[in-house]
Hints:
This protein has helices spanning 25-47, 52-71, 128-135, 149-170, and strands at residues 19-22, 77-81, 84-89, 92-97, 101-109, 112-119, 139-140. The chain is α+β, with helices and mostly antiparallel strands. A hairpin with a 2-residue loop joins strand 3 and strand 4.
Amino acid sequence: MKHGGKMSSNAILVYPETKVLRSGKAKCLGVALIGGVFTLVGWWMIRDGHPMGWFVLLFFFLMFCVSLANCLPRASGMVVMPEGFAVRSLFRAWYCSWQDVEEFGVFSAGGTKMVGFRIKDVSQYKGARLSDALCGCHGVLPETFGLSAESLAMAMNGYREAAVRATDGSS
């Protein structure tokens, strides 16, 4: 299945050589706490007669709900397998084969370091050209799973190189 495609929750199987990276609960709980506090601020603004309070309340309540949902088990994470990697974010999963990836690298978006990757054949992936124009990569991992962006990019490049070598050696 291609990047951006849909995948059933049963499609991710764990083998002995599989690495499972989980999302950090502290970060999503911290974001939920911030969302909850500002939701209360919006409520107080509405009580005091400020119409902008509705925007504040709705925006931060949505932030609160999404953050809590992302904290639930199996809501997010990444599985690194011999044939590729699967990423789950807010219960939606996508898969990318190592054979499709050219390289992983670190880029900065809004002051946050993230791990992006370039793919070999962009014609197979929707939005890859637009993503490349915006941030210089074709795809992005949704988070760093408790690692530094540099460490995760280096590890992903290592997994990719090992998988490509194993495939080339078995041909």
